[in-house]
C-alpha cells in the first residue's frame, strides 16, 4: 500500500498534454482546436478513469480501507483501471462481473484483471441490475465500494482538476469543452469547474439515454457547491448504441488516426471526434477556442 496519496502522481503523466489539432475547416472558421490528451496519463489507468478514481482512492485510504470492490463488464475500462491500481498501489481488489457465462479468460480485460490479482465474481445479467443486493452478498466490511464506471460525487473534483489544467495551459477559458458522455461523470465534473463563459458539449455514446440529463443534474446538486448550466448534449452520434460501430464511424476513425498521428477508439473518443467533425460545420461559432477531451479507453 502506498503510504502517501501523492505517490500516485509519480507514475502518472500530469498535467496531461494539450495539443493543437489542425484541419482546413478550422482555418476557414478561424478556430483554435486543441485535444486534451488524457489518454496519455497512464497506459493502464487511462484517461478519465484516473480523474474519477483519484479522490475515491484518497477517501478509501483516509478511512483506512486497503481493499476495493467494484463492478464492470467484460470490456470495462473502469475494471481494467481498478485492477491496475491494485497492482501498482497494493490495494486488494474484487470485481463483480456482468455475465455468469464468462470466465477469467473471456476477454483481455478480464484476463488482465485476473493477472493483477483481482478476485472476479461472475453474476447473471439479471442479478447485476441490483447492485445493492450484490454488495450485500459479496462485499466484506473491510472493502471500499467504487461505483460502476467510477462516477459519484467524489469523482467531480478529479475531473475538475482537468479543467484547471486546461485553463493554465491555455492561459484563458476556452469557448467550448467537448467530451464523450457515458455515465455522465465526466461532463458533470467539467460543469463543476468551468466558468460560465465556456459552453460544455457532450456527445452521448449510448442509445436512448436521455435519462442521463437528470442523473447529471442530481450528481451536480449533491456533489458540487457551484456548477455551470451552460451545456448541451447531442444524442444522435451513438452509432447504434454503446460499443456498437457503423461503417461510417470506422472509416472516419481509420482516416482520423492516420491523419493526426494518435489513435482514438470507437466506443468513446472516436464517436466524439466524429460528432465534432459534423458539429463544427453548423454548431460551433467562428473565432472560437475548442478543447476536445480524449478520455482514453483501451479499445
From TrEMBL:
Q: Which cofactor does it need?
A: pyridoxal 5'-phosphate
Taxon lineage: Bacteria, Pseudomonadati, Bacteroidota, Cytophagia, Cytophagales
Q: Which family does it belong to?
A: Belongs to the ACC deaminase/D-cysteine desulfhydrase family.
Q: Where is the Tryptophan synthase beta chain-like PALP domain?
A: 28-296
Please provide an example of a Pfam family that matches this protein in its UniProt record. PALP
Could you identify this protein by its name?
1-aminocyclopropane-1-carboxylate deaminase/D-cysteine desulfhydrase
Concerning SUPFAM superfamilies, the annotation shows:
Tryptophan synthase beta subunit-like PLP-dependent enzymes
- A GO molecular-function descriptor: D-cysteine desulfhydrase activity
Positions where N6-(pyridoxal phosphate)lysine occurs in the chain: 49
What keywords would UniProt list here?
Pyridoxal phosphate
The answer on whether this UniProt entry bears the keyword NADP reads no
Q: Which residues form the active site?
A: 76 (nucleophile)
| The UniProt record lists the keyword S-adenosyl-L-methionine | no
Source organism of the structure: Emticicia agri
